[in-house]
Amino acid sequence: MDSTTDILRARVAMGDRPGGTYAISLAGHVGFVLFAIAFPSGLLSTEGADVMDNVMSISLGGPVGASQGGQTALAARPVQEVLPLEEADRPQWIQPPAPAQPEEVVRTPDAPRRLESERVTEPAPEESRGRTPTRGPELREGTALADTGARGLGVGLSGGGLGSGGYLEVGDFCCPEYLGIMTQLIRQRWVNQQEFTGSVMMKFTIERDGQIVNIARETTSGYLALDQSAERALRLTRVLPPLPTRFPEDDLTVHLNFEYQR
Amino acid sequence: MRTLGYYAIALQLQAVGASEAAAGGGILEWVARSSPLNKIVLLILVLFSVASWGIVLHKSWEFRRLERQTFSFLDVFRRSKKFSEVQAVCRSLTHSPLVGVFQAGYAELNSQLRPVGGEATVALPSSSAQPNLRSFDALDRALLRASSVEQNKLEHRLHLLATTASITPFIGLFGTVMGIVTSFQEISATGSTNLAVVAPGIGEALIATAAGLGAAIPAVYFYNHLTNKVKLYLSAMDDFSLEFLNIADRNFTS
């Protein structure tokens, strides 16, 4: 017999006898069972849990609130309502980040001060100027005239907001843009769609601070309703923007013609 | 409405009281009340658990001792001048797998170098009259055989851990399913679906699954842990075999 084989056989026969560890394992399991017997509710105990808490969370109804005993309503309104579709889909503006705070600079009294006149400001190069983005060829207004039925506003005053329903008499007033604002504000409070047609000439005075005073009817339309509607528009407007600084006078008297349509 | 709400609360309290009364105080009472089949399942699971924990304890202690002896053996082997000195130490370090490998290699060396009718003393490194090794491959094969034997010894009984990890959850599940079947039979017999009637039966059934998992989880962990240790020893044996072959090649081949 080969001696190597003998040695290997002896090694195999040496084996291991885990009988002792089996006994220890069995004793451990018995100990676990005894522990479970000694403390029947020790491992999986639910004692100490507040049963009333669990019960109070289940209810058949009632309004929400602590005064109602914590009851929740069965058919209550949802806590969070879904936003309307158009509200939800409306794009939200992205706010730009706030500008950084300028760094604090400690003044050094000894530092030489530069006079404003010493500063040399060079103009920016032409390439650095931004270009307005375009969307194709520029459209220019033509010179052709078309009769739209609109009537002018006295001495060369165009538009004004009263459309075909108003006629303005302002003499040689310096600031036509102010008149545009004025007519727009009055028109917002004037109902020009009435049962009758006609025109009412109103006279009023705008003071330096924009207040409308001395409202008077110069010509009547023949219908009391139309006259009162024009006067009501002026009284409801009550205050206009202050007169332009370019206007030298303290007040401005305006003759405004209200034309009614059906 | 409030009256209705309090009525519901009163009903809940009554049900909780009934289920606690049915619980009776612990899982052991549930086990005692469970069906014979469930008890058999639990017994099988307990046996598996006892066996697997026994193996875990045994292997853990064995590997600890084995690690200590392997360290001592390698220390002696690398400091000795003669294989006979190492062989003398091996008698006190029998549990190390490297000792088995060394003894097999040493026996093979002796059988090849021994003159007919006498015994040779194999000496490390240089010797004035160097004996010659007849078959280097035979020495390699002897070391391989020894490694294989030691590997089998290391892996002995580990398969039971793998078996426990694999089948105990299924055994527990089987017990649970059978317990739930029994519960449904009781429901049909009593005609009541009250939770206080149904819950104990389902609870008893679920104990089997819990026991199965309780046996399987440590078995899985320790199987992986011990298998990893076996791999480390296999690597150490390969390393030692090559070292032994190198020494033999240097000293006993011309």
From TrEMBL, chain A:
Residues 89-140 are annotated as: Disordered. One of its GO terms (biological process) is transmembrane transport. The chain crosses the membrane at residues 21-44. Residues 104-130 have a biased composition (Basic and acidic residues). Its main location: membrane. Residues 172-262 form the TonB C-terminal domain. GO terms for cellular component: membrane. PROSITE patterns: TONB_CTD. It is a single-pass membrane protein. Keywords: Membrane, Transmembrane, Transmembrane helix. It is found in: Membrane. InterPro entries: TonB/TolA_C, TonB_C. This is TonB C-terminal domain-containing protein. It comes from marine metagenome. The lineage of its organism: unclassified sequences, metagenomes, ecological metagenomes.
